[in-house]
């Protein structure tokens, strides 16, 4: 039982009420719009996705039950309740349409996350790897003296799978596994196709010699379209250096729709308060 | 490729969203309530109105099982009123007719009298949640709107209007007139979008916002590629200028004690 379930049981007496279904549907829709609109990966909404997938599974079961009952030999043979059948077909088609719409949302969301992951795979691997990648670096430096470094060495190890569910992980376990496998394959491919003919010191995929990092991060200064849902939230100009303070700029009124840089509003997402803005 | 579509929702996806708007229907046949993944559906009992998502209303309408009650804004009178507002302020740039207020947004008239209380829902994670479009009753037919309240275009006006005209034109008051007014509104507003391009310049600076309040979802969807392209291009061009501005801003924000460190920063930059 994770923290989401505990909170859910406190906040709502029954997490399986129709109201919570409707709310989760709205949350999923909003998360999908935001994920589609934002250039970087948003934190994985584990509780929401678990609940949604469980509901989809149950809905499929109930649709199958209904479909089985409609093709029941007794009812069709007697044809006594033929006035009931059209309603049943209508019900089935409504349920299936609704199911497909939800499945489309989930599929589009996951695929877009995968495309972001594969585009900036190294960035996200470094992000989720435990520790600031100093320990593997040192190991590699020792290896350099003995044998040639491989590009695969620059891939940080996976974090332990039994990680704390309380902390909001940016990736789901499946995405993490995909990310690692993807980057390993990519590194092997690069190594066999051209990196092996490079000088050994130029073979790392996370090379940052010359002050330029080879790891491409998503651009956080790209603009997004937001609607402000709470009064008086300010757009942030984040500090460029660690020494500076964040600058708080224009305040937006509730209901305002605006074009704004993603970095200016992403803090409102970070602290679990992301519902201040409706990003699209 | 894992996903071929560009960043930002595309027009077909905006239509998909608009189909989640709630509309009022007059059912022609009974149907028991259903538990959908998008929330529960109330039972349909023929003389009584019901409120359903647009996709379901259209499905029932196409099978002649229901009539759709058009939302109050999709009426020739309301539309021509809105068109008047749009064209009156046509010379002042970017003045779109105001959107319907959010539930927790005080409207201009009743600001001092009866401020509507924001009712935040709570998510299962314990966070506050404020519903927004398409999950607001902006397209539900109401018999008597608030007195003195001008009709307002909802966020998904173009999509909902087009879909209703296409599938349920016999339920609308004057479909031809409505279609003509929608087209005029669209032209007036898109020319405003085009003439408002100048303000995009200011969005290239960090912390600034370009207000698009009142612009519909599909209009944003059409302009999205252009707007984000222009702003991002200007940002790249003005990156160095922005850096200088940042330092100036930081200098102004910081008290006198920061003066010394600020000078150090400037010296560092001079070496580059």
From TrEMBL, chain A:
Q: Which GO terms describe its biological process?
A: DNA-templated DNA replication; double-strand break repair via break-induced replication
SUPFAM superfamilies in alphabetical order: GINS helical bundle-like
Q: What Pfam families does the record tag this protein with?
A: Sld5, SLD5_C
**Where does this polypeptide localize?**
Nucleus
Which parts of the sequence belong to the GINS subunit domain?
72-193
Task: Just give the chief location class.
Answer: nucleus
The record's InterPro entries line, in alphabetical order, gives: GINS_A, GINS_bundle-like_dom_sf, GINS_Sld5, SLD5_C, Sld5_GINS_A
Q: Does the keyword Nucleus apply?
A: yes
GO CC terms in record: GINS complex
| Keywords of the record | DNA replication, Nucleus
Q: Which domain of life is it from?
A: Eukaryota
Coiled-coil spans are none
Q: Tell me the ranges covered by the DNA replication complex GINS protein SLD5 C-terminal domain, including all copies.
A: 218-272
Claim: Nucleus is one of the keywords in the record: yes
Mark out the compositionally biased spans (Low complexity). 75-88, 127-140
Residue ranges for the region (Disordered) are 67-88, 127-170
Q: Outline what the protein does.
A: The GINS complex plays an essential role in the initiation of DNA replication.
> What family classification does the UniProt entry report for this protein?
Belongs to the GINS4/SLD5 family.
Full protein name: DNA replication complex GINS protein SLD5
Q: What is the taxonomic lineage of the source species?
A: Eukaryota, Fungi, Dikarya, Ascomycota, Pezizomycotina
TrEMBL record, chain B:
Q: Name one Pfam family in it.
A: PSF2_N
Where is the GINS subunit domain positioned along the sequence?
Answer: 144-237
Concerning InterPro entries, the annotation shows:
GINS_A (IPR021151), GINS_bundle-like_dom_sf (IPR036224), GINS_Psf2 (IPR007257), PSF2_N (IPR056784)
Compositionally biased region (Acidic residues)? 262-272
Domain DNA replication complex GINS protein PSF2 N-terminal, residue spans:
10-69
Range of residues in the leader sequence: none
Highest taxon of source: Eukaryota
Which is a GO BP term held by this UniProt record? double-strand break repair via break-induced replication
Q: Where's it found, cell-wise? A: Nucleus
* Keywords assigned by UniProt, alphabetized: Chromosome partition, DNA replication, Nucleus
Would the keyword Nucleus be found if you checked this record's keyword annotation?
Answer: yes
Q: Does the keyword Isomerase apply?
A: no
Q: Which GO terms describe its cellular component?
A: GINS complex
Q: Where is this region: Disordered?
A: 90-112, 240-272
Q: How does it assemble?
A: Component of the GINS complex which is a heterotetramer of SLD5, PSF1, PSF2 and PSF3.
What is known about what this protein does?
A: The GINS complex plays an essential role in the initiation of DNA replication. Has a role in chromosome segregation.
> Family assignment?
Belongs to the GINS2/PSF2 family.
Q: Report the protein name in the record.
A: DNA replication complex GINS protein PSF2
